[in-house]
Amino acid sequence: MIGISADFDPVHLGHVKLIEKGREIAEETGDKVAIYLNKGFSANHAPFFTSFEARKDMALAAGADKVVGIEGLHHRLTLAYSVPIRIAMMIEDGVVDYIDAANVSTPKIVKYAEKFVKQGIFVGIPRDLPNRNVIRWFAVNEFLKEKYGRNMKFHIIPELEFNGKISGREIRRSIIENDMEIPEQTKELLPKSTIKILEREIKKGTIPEERNWKYINKRMNTCSRPNLMKLAYLNGNAINEIVKGRVYRDEESVWATFRRAGYGPVLTRLAISAIEEKVSRQEVVNLMRSYEKKGVIPHEQSVDKVIERSYYVATQCEKGELASIANEEFRSNPNITMDEIPLSFDAGLYLTKFETKLLNKKLDNKKSEQNQNMSEELIPQIYVDKDGKLSCEIKVDKKKIKTNLKLPAKEVTYLRYIIDSQFIPVSANIIKTKSGFRIRILINE
Questions:
Q1: Contacts of 292 by beta carbon, 8 Å cutoff, 6+ apart
Q2: For 149-235, where are the alpha helices, taking DSSP H only?
Q3: 137 touches 83 (CB < 8 A)
């Protein structure tokens, strides 16, 4: 098969050129042109302007032989993880030739990609690299050659320009700003089949697809810090900014909060999608683990490697090194390894006499019932408080005990890095020792 992976939202003349290149190859090989079309959320973690069925119709009308839907990835994973999964899917389906567009020559794409293939990591590709997503696709395709014994042959065509680069974002914006009518100048960028389908969908009222802002605002207005901490792609700073920025009533206030937390546009869209779909950290890790087992996710991007990096940074900070320097050292040197990385450790608590008495009474009652399992209300919830300190919340008899954690500096750095990984889950148990109550913190357990 000949593969093209895209959002096609909507199909414009640049996309038509991709399909035409596919048809040109198909005339020589006899293969079919297959469009791997994203469903649910776009590759940039946003809802689509046009429905999947409409975009499928557009792709087929533009000359594709078949459309394969890709669903469930882009509200759960960054491109560094979703791209390997998508390429693996295409290779396994029998795609031999892959078509993409870029304003950089193929030799330059090969040169840019070499570094990432060598490191075996596709996170943090610099924004200043031209056509960096094409570079990521090329690098991942090379990486997966070892697993499959083959990879796809890339065909890079020039990006089509019409008074500048043709942009799906600008096409969508022009229609919205023109009261949901397609402006004449925008029609010049679209094939007739796309215009016909767009007009059909506009008449039906299915365009644009939108987020459930009512639900997003409700979660951001009402969820506690510990509950927000369970969601993927929210770090400690973002959660505190969310709480600080309440009450949310519109989209702009949500975006402003993530800007204050230091999030860029792409990560903001992913975080909002995770809130909308209630994506937990555990859900993301489970998905990553499943593809790690298949050999699709590079080892340097594995969940274990993220945990290892966090512990390395904590170890180096204890020696007086800056966290940013230690982080870059680990990313750039694949030979750095850490032995005996702790996945659990105990933290002390600052409890009042009343809180200690309350916990003692509750635990004694549980023992008398011969039930050693903690009730749900006694499970500590870890979070970062408004002052940036690591804390926990314990519910006992409809009361909430909130306390900072007593931890050595190394464990503080380690745990904070784990929390700020944005997808590694952190859980905890309460234990009673001779010297008092402790919180046993569990990393990815």
A1: 302, 303
A2: 168-177, 184-187, 192-204, 213-222, 225-229
A3: yes
User: CA angle 341-330-336, nearest 5°?
Assistant: 65
Q: Determine how many CB atoms are found less than 10 A away from the CB of residue 290.
A: 12
Q: Would you say 47 and 210 are in contact if contact means Cβ atoms under 8 Å apart? A: yes
Closest CA to 326 of 263, 238, 425, 414: 414
Query: How crowded is residue 394: how many other Cβ atoms within 10 Å of its Cβ?
Result: 24
Residues 6+ apart with CB under 8 A from 432: 363, 438
Q: Phi then psi for 23, rounded to 5 degrees?
A: -65, -35
| pLDDT band at 121; cut points 50, 70, 90 | confident
CB 247 within 8 A of CB 221: yes
Distance CA 394, CA 444 (A): 20
**Which residues, 6+ apart, have CB-to-CB distance to 366 below 8 Å?**
372, 374, 375, 378
CA count, 13 A, side-chain hemisphere, 369: 11
- Cα(168)–Cα(101) distance, integer angstroms: 14
Beta carbons within 8 Å of 204's beta carbon, 6+ residues apart = none
Q: What are phi and psi of 136, to 5 degrees?
A: -60, -45
- Please give the helix or strand (H or E) that residue 244 lies within, else none: helix 236-244
Residue 184 CA: distances (Å) to CA of 170, 180, 189, 208, 347: 14, 13, 9, 19, 65
Peptide bond into 208 cis (omega under 30): yes
Dist. CA 308–CA 418, nearest whole Å: 10
Are 38 and 46 in contact by the 8 Å Cβ rule? The answer is no
Place of tokens 């009730």: 375
The residue type of 206 is T
- Torsion, Cα 15 17 23 25, to 10 degrees, reads -110
Per the listing, tokens 């030739």 go with: 97
Cα 198 off chain centre by: 30
Peptide bond into 130 cis (omega under 30): no
pLDDT digits over 61-71, tens only?
999 999 999 99
- pLDDT tens profile 321-341: 999 999 989 988 888 888 899
Q: What is the mean pLDDT of residues 96-103?
A: 94
CA-wise closest residue to 418 among 385, 366, 383: 383
Q: Dig out the tokens for 342 from the structure.
A: 């702790």
CB 428 within 8 A of CB 440: yes
9, 48 contact by CB (below 8 A): yes
Q: What angle do CA 125, 131, 95 make, to 5 degrees?
A: 95
